[in-house]
Amino acid sequence: MKVIFNGAPRKVKSKRLGDIIKELDGAYKQGCIIAVISEKKGGELKNEFSLKTAKGEPRIKIAREKETAAVALFHEIYKNFHNEGGIIDWISEDITAIGPIGTNLSVERSEHKYGKWDVFFGFGGFDPGMTYLMISKRAHEAAYGTGADALIGRLTRGRSIITALGEGDRIEAITPIVTKAERIGFVTSDLDTEIKEGQEIFTYAKIKLSQDAPMSSEHFLSLARDDIFHVDDLTHTYIASEALKGLSLPLETIQYRSKYRLSVRYKGTEKGKIYAYKGSRLPTPSHNVFGEIIRGGELIESAKVGDTIYTVTEPKWMMVVGKTQKEAEEFFEREDIEQVREGNQDDNAVVVDQVPALTMEIIDRGTVRTVGVEKEAVFDVTLFHKEAPKTVWYFKKVTGLINRPIGYLKVHFTVPGMLVLFQGNADEAGTLVPENLPKKGVKKGVLGVTNMSRSNRGMMGIRMEENKEYGPTGETLDGANIVLSIPSLSTSTMSFLSRLKEGDVIYVKEKP
Q1: More confidently predicted of 416 and 162
Q2: Dihedral angle over CA of 79, 83, 88, 89, nearest 10
Q3: Whole-number pLDDT of residue 235
Q4: What share of the chain is helix, strand, coil (3-state, %, to 5)?
Q5: Which one-letter DSSP state was computed for residue 175?
Q6: Is the separation of the CB atoms in 444 and 489 below 8 Å?
Q7: 205-314 domain in CATH 3.90.245.10?
Q8: Which residues pair with 355 in a beta bridge?
């Protein structure tokens, strides 16, 4: 059968969604939602009509829900208002009259009120043989030979066109509006879903990022580092991800937040939150618009909180921190970017920094410097997300792990054989409530953060030995939150930590 798969017509033998993806070797990530779309053909509307003129196409919308005799008659004779019957025959300050044609409408000589842009039947000389389609250009009272039930509807578009028409101009045709095909769909992660002939399938959203918003684009790339957009919030006009809520950004681009555009709030309580729009919204001075979904926008139409969407970006994320120097070289060769190695330049050295850091700047310059260190300087750590969520957020933000694969800690002070203290940020730790406290003592190799109950809040430290009285930062046990552990405490690891001195830097990478 024929389907449309990620925008391309394809023929498939399979009917089950998972089998179709496998048959087409389609791009998909396990657990992400898939959009399935069907088209329902459009048709003529009976409640909206277009008036074709040389100056444009005004529109009439039928005003009455219950069809009157005048509305029923209009549906029968609207095609007669063209050629000789479509001439602008009569113009005043109050009306523009199209016609005349003959009808059998009854005559009524009393005055009636007409609203601005009302459309109705009226007579010339109280004669039904001279029936006009009249458009009221201002509110007024008059006797046009017909009653209140002669009202057909209102002019909803092209009012300036009607005003500009002069006597002798012509209505070329009046035609009912034809709707576009209606797209009806749903999203699912059930690969057993049966697909029908002609349906469209979207397994990912392709996002084009703006070079005019390099920081906002990088913010999104780091949020979707695993090519996943998590839906944490939604309304009828947007879905949003809160994974990086709390991070500040500079003002870059204020634009209309049109359908399928992406924005990030760069200030206020929701700063760092990323939005993808299902419907258009006005510009706001607190949002940067940084990208657009150019394929697979249907995925956001029916997404729910808790869903995940597979994303493909253009350009891809130019982040090689965490790779080896050799892996970084191979990556940039594919992207036609020149790499300059710095620091430890060995093939197996781990890249811990890159200059420039932003994807858009790397593309613009065409060159990047990658800074390497020996593998021993990068520690795989286990973060206690569940036990200490606020402390994990603080740790990731202060070390840089929040938006890149490797973070760093700068040594502040050491007590040989006992503990190593690292620089923190007292301002960021101002609301760091006690959590995951070491109630029964501290094991070696765990890192703690001094919480808001102490004057040295924000200080981070690792214990080199077990202690039942004092935490990793030298505070009593109720003064430090345990945020992570180093699972591989080998002899070489302990030796490396014991040699650290003030000003040294170690690097941390979250263990999968």
Answers
A1: 162
A2: -110
A3: 93
A4: 15, 40, 45
A5: E
A6: yes
A7: no
A8: 369
| Residue spans in the chain of domains classed CATH 2.40.100.10 | 45-178, 205-314, 377-510
| DSSP for residue 188 | E
pLDDT value at residue 65: 52
pTM summary value: 0.72
Per-residue pLDDT reduced to its tens digit, 267-290? 988 999 999 999 888 788 899 999
Structure tokens at 323: 């790779």
Which one-letter DSSP state was computed for residue 457? Answer: T
Question: What is the three-class DSSP state of 130?
Answer: strand
pLDDT digits (tens, 9 = 90+) for 167-189: 999 999 999 887 766 778 899 99
Residue type present at position 261: R
Helix (H) or strand (E) holding 393: helix 389-399
The predicted pLDDT at position 44 comes to 61
Peptide bond just before 100 cis, omega within 30 deg: yes
Instruction: Supply the pLDDT for residue 41.
Output: 67
- The CATH number of 377-510, from 1.10.3720.10, 3.40.50.2000, 2.40.100.10, 3.60.15.10, is 2.40.100.10
- CATH code, 2-42+180-202: 3.10.20
In angstroms, the CA 52 to CA 58 distance is 7
CA atoms of 296 and 304, how far apart (whole Å) = 16
pLDDT at 149: 86
Which of 358, 353, 346, 359 has its CA nearest to residue 371?
Answer: 353
- 66, pLDDT greater than 60: no
60-74, 280-294, 416-430: which has the minimum mean pLDDT?
60-74
Residue 8: beta bridge partners?
A: 5
pLDDT at 45 over 80: no
Helix (H) or strand (E) holding 254: none
Tens-place pLDDT, residues 323-378: 999 999 999 999 999 999 999 999 999 999 999 999 999 999 999 999 999 998 89
CA nearest neighbour of 120 among 160, 90, 147: 147
Residues 6+ positions from 307 with CB-CB distance below 8 Å? 32, 33, 187, 189, 230, 231
CATH 3.30.420.40 fits 45-178, yes or no: no
Q: CA 359 to CA 364: how far, in whole Å?
A: 9
Q: How far is CA 177 from CA 42, 47, 57, 97, in A?
A: 10, 8, 11, 22
Question: SS3 of 178, please?
Answer: strand
CA distance 43 to 297: 25
Average pLDDT (119-145) is 94
The alpha carbon of 247 is separated from its chain's Cα centroid by a whole number of angstroms, namely: 17
What sign has the CA pseudo-torsion 380, 381, 386, 388? negative
Q: Which of 357, 351, 356 is nearest to 371 (CA)?
A: 351
